[in-house]
Write a structure and sequence with these properties.
With 353 residues, this protein is mostly helical. Helix content is 82%, strand content 0%. It has 17 helices and no strands.
């Protein structure tokens, strides 16, 4: 797909989202939140993985650093496309209603206050975009220093934005693993995206890519299993309701779809050496994973809202197309520049050793 085609898809999606905003504003805004959560996991995850790649030497660095840098270049667009969520905060989150927030403890009331929420979102994106720009500008040891400090900041921000943007849509629910779930989802999204770019036009895949992907897959599965076990063994109604809403409604199909297509199928497929060394097969697994990440973001956000399947599904599709299309056009315009700057920095480091 070229930049014009991607832009056309994005604009058509925007038109659909705008129409939805006029006809069903709450449903349209919540669908937009689900879509931006899914798509923004790509640049955020790419940035986190890029910093790890730059800190840990190995054959994966020249292979993965350029595509990860291209993906991280989408962060400014992600920040811009998050603005509708901030503008429609009062339509999306129940804690913006004073009657809902009246019983909150003091810290929770402060944390879930609209002004502080908006301030944190701006701060999150400012730090992440600042790190992305600093990595492009730095060379040698300076780049490693930025990456070392950035990994710490990313670990905190990547987990907090999951708590802020998704968990708080159900303010009575809390899980201590929730932030880690979002980190692993970001790694899967960013890693899958980088894998697609790294294998573009190739017939064979380096085996190390399968190893990196399986590591992310196992971490995702472990975190999901841990939350499920802890919540069900605790048998606390206000926490167990989180899974009830995703297993005793029509969302049960999405739940089992994520188990089968996000974990079981890719894991079993990657046991085969033929799959691990086939670029086409690895690209297929990466595309499936990206699709499942979009579904997972909707699975996090939509079940407790009580929105009907229609028109929410159409609004979600429009938001996916809008953000994905604009992201594709932005990537084709700016992604290659970021990849080249990171690659030049790698070559500089090698010459200076």
């Amino acid at each position: 797909m070229n930049a014009r085609a991607a832009l056309l898809v994005g604009l058509l999606g925007l038109a659909g989202a705008a129409a939805g905003l006029l006809l069903a504003p709450r449903a349209a805004l919540i669908a937009w939140l689900a879509a931006i959560l899914g798509w923004s996991a790509v640049p955020i995850g790419c940035l986190g993985l890029l910093m790890m790649v730059l800190l840990i030497p190995g054959r994966w660095r020249p292979l993965l650093a350029p595509p990860l840098a291209a993906g991280a270049a989408l962060l400014p667009l992600a920040a811009l496309l998050f603005v509708p969520v901030l503008a429609g905060l009062w339509q999306i989150y129940p804690w913006t209603d004073p009657d809902v927030a009246v019983g909150f403890p003091a810290f929770k009331a402060l944390w879930l206050s609209p002004a502080f929420f908006i301030l944190r979102a701006i701060l999150y994106f400012a730090v992440l975009i600042g790190l992305q720009r600093a990595l492009l500008a730095a060379r040698g040891e300076a780049r490693s220093a930025v990456a070392a400090a950035g990994v710490i900041a990313y670990g905190l921000i990547g987990s907090l934005l999951g708590v802020d943007w998704a968990e708080s849509i159900q303010p009575a629910f809390h899980s201590s693993i929730y932030g880690l779930l979002f980190l692993t989802s970001q790694w899967l999204a960013g890693g899958s995206f980088a894998l697609l770019l790294a294998l573009r036009g190739k017939e064979e895949a380096p085996p190390l890519l399968a190893g990196v992907f399986v590591t992310g897959l196992l971490m995702w599965g472990y975190m999901q299993a841990m939350q499920y076990i802890v919540i069900w063994s605790g048998d606390i109604p206000r926490e167990a309701i989180w899974y009830v809403q995703r297993s005793e409604t029509s969302w049960v199909f999405a739940t089992w779809g994520l188990v089968a297509l996000q974990f079981v199928l890719p894991f079993l497929a990657l046991l085969s050496p033929a799959v691990r060394t086939s670029a086409a097969a690895m690209r297929g697994i990466a595309l499936l994973t990206l699709a499942m990440q979009l579904l997972e973001a909707a699975w996090f956000v939509l079940p407790p809202t009580g929105l009907p399947f229609f028109p929410t599904a159409l609004l979600l599709l429009a938001a996916w197309c809008a953000i994905g299309g604009l992201g594709g056009a932005f990537l084709l315009r700016f992604g290659a520049q970021a990849a080249e700057r990171i690659e030049a920095g790698l070559n500089f480091s090698e010459r200076s050793v």
